[in-house]
Design goal:
This protein has 561 residues and is an alpha/beta fold. The strands form 7 sheets. The chain has a 5-stranded mixed beta sheet with strand order 3-2-4-15-7. Strands 9-12-8-13 form a 4-stranded mixed beta sheet. Strands 1-18 form a two-stranded parallel sheet. The chain starts with 11 loop residues before the first helix and ends in a 5-residue tail after the last helix. It is built from 20 helices and 19 strands.
Length: 561
Amino acid sequence: MTPNAASSGPSRRSFLASTAVATAAVAGGMPLLAACGGSEGGSRDGTTSGKDAKKILPAYVATNVVKPDIPAKNGSAIGFTGKLDLSTLKTSVSEKLGKGGKVTVMAPFWGSPPKQNNAYYKAMNDLIGVDVVWQNQDGNTYDQKLGAVLASSDVPDVVVVPGWNMGGKIPSAIISKFADLGPYLSGDKVKEYPNLAAIPTDAWRRSIFGGKLRGLPMPAPSAPSMVPLYRQDIFEKEGYEVPKSCDEFMTLAKEITNARAKRWACLDMKWTAFQAFGVLSGSEKPLGWNLVDGKLVNRVETEEFLEALEWSRKLFAAGVVHPDSRMGKNAPDPGPKFAAGEFLIYPNNISQWWGRTAEQATQNPDFKIWGMDVWGHDGGDPVLWAEQPAGIFAFVSKKASESVIRDVLAVANVTAAPYGTKEYMMTNYGIEGTHYTVKDGVPVKTDKGNNEVMNAYVMVASPAATLAHPDFPEVARGQVEWEQRMGAFAKKSSFWGMQITEPARYTNLSNNFEQLEDDVVRGRKKIGDMQQAVADWKSKGGDKLRDWYQKLLDENGSAAS
């Protein structure tokens, strides 16, 4: 059951945020290196090699509590496509592990936080045996609050840090301010917390900071998450064919577009262009580095990067892009105009596939959104890139006592319960009859549920990536099968799975590229401006940063090898 996307505009931060509240992860995957090197309490840059990481990682013990309808494959989520029978829910936490202590948690929150003593929080705390006190902060401005809190001496017991907020001094603050969880979770010690033991190893590997296991992860599929979503109902009615190349897309877009009739083909397709041209991911660190023919290259230096921008620019120039997209990041929510058929295609996080379906189910029964398979720009197979196996982490204060740490782990062991368990239903839906009802196997939140059961406890730790929509099982199947098809084309970059802390002098080096990308695509800047920006980036530190990453490869080996 994936919550609706938190945001509509496909900026890096917004689409990661939409993934954030859509729980995730991937089982298996090759053993990898990871983490930031450094001594206890230090802030040394770098990563931890495979052997050292192996000593730190929790043992992996797959859960057999519930069997998925669609097992994970090619880095996909697992899928459930049946109705929900509350009488058959399993128990994954056989005894209350919390000892009744109080734990404060600061986390990003999208929406209006409920009052602390609400029925959902009370029920969760009773289930866990811990008094969790929430310090929810606005997710849209979370980086500002996070920086201030980590710079102070007053750090809550638990702080949630999304990957997109790990710029500047945040990584070194994580190393200096948060506890080593290895003494409680490394190796077989994790077996005391079975649901944490079932979190895939790759997600834990991403949780090593400063040479220590510091994070509790929210796992994510490594299969691509950015989908070209389209109005399948209108395509079928009009006889439109799903394109299989960039040229086919342009031809189709011109056929669809009729500005006088207020219909355009698409929104900004930059993210799909990056996929179609095989551009390395630039969503989170390490930002787009890969070994190509023995040389370390950044995404912004490649011809594919420029070609993707140029194709996206041509769509704007041809007038096939909806006028709202010219507004960039401040464009309104695309949902209503997509539903009205003002445009038929837009790229966004896979969670919107279900979110848009649920929105329109009663008011627009003919509405059908589906996901296009990503095409190679020339009509061949696409070259896609595996996404990081975890992107959000909860950290425990270094000042926390052992009893507080164990209470935090008790919380995480409940919130990481797999789909099909009583603990999962409580974490994601609350109390039956109070926060949700079940009709014909479909759980529906009440008004109280919508107000209280939101993105709180799921931020502490999550189970392996799961897609399950009892209200629209065909969407869950479609999502998982899309991930599996696209995951078959996804490669792991040289630094995949590593948790890397760049030297502070380089952390803001790439900050202006996303805005420049958008300016080029919209015709406000030229490709030559991007080429000049890349030259400036190289001279101002890009080449030195390349040398730094090369040293990491020399010392640790490549994730892709």
